[in-house]
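In this section we walk through a basic example: taking a raw amino acid sequence and producing a predicted 3D structure, encoded as discrete structure tokens. The instruction is simple. Fold the sequence below.
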Amino acid sequence: MNAVLICGSRNPHGQTAQAGEAVLRGLARAGVASDKLFLPVLRLDRCRQCDDNGWGQCRREGHCVIADDLSRIADRLRSADVAVFATPVYYADLSESLRAFTDRLRRVCTHETGRLGIKGKPVVGVCVAGGGGGGALACCSSLERVLATSGFDVVDMIPVRRQNLQAKLAALEVTGQWLASRPGSGQ
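The resulting token sequence is shown next.
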């Protein structure tokens, strides 16, 4: 079994990265190998809405025409048994890098070919609000909606605030262990 963390945080040592790493530690305790992808350091363009009707090959064929890292990230998601998405909360929503990725991924997943290896895959979302700590719940709702639209089996969404991060790290590790042991997760 293997897992992948898709992280929308710019800081590989920040609060969002710590939260995602806690889930990976739980997975590792259960014997699951994992890797992580930090979206802001990858090349991800925004959707171009290629055709006059706002769609393109994504809808017709299940792939995007833009030559950047989207296909490589999607292939890594497809090869994983479970996935974790972690994002900092900006304006009660996803980070710009995670939004750019998920906006295009869900378009690709509109086509059955694009959903191959993604449909039904267990996924956990973690939304970490810094600053005053608000907006984590709204961000979870947004992330859950886009992941479900893409075809993932959203098994948990975890809001975290800067103020409760240390307390939530233990719960996030337990979530990783649970994710590795649940039926249908690849073990």
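Looking at the output, two observations stand out. Strands lie at 2-7, 33-38, 82-88, 122-129, 153-161. The chain has seven helices and five strands. In the next section we compare this with other chains.
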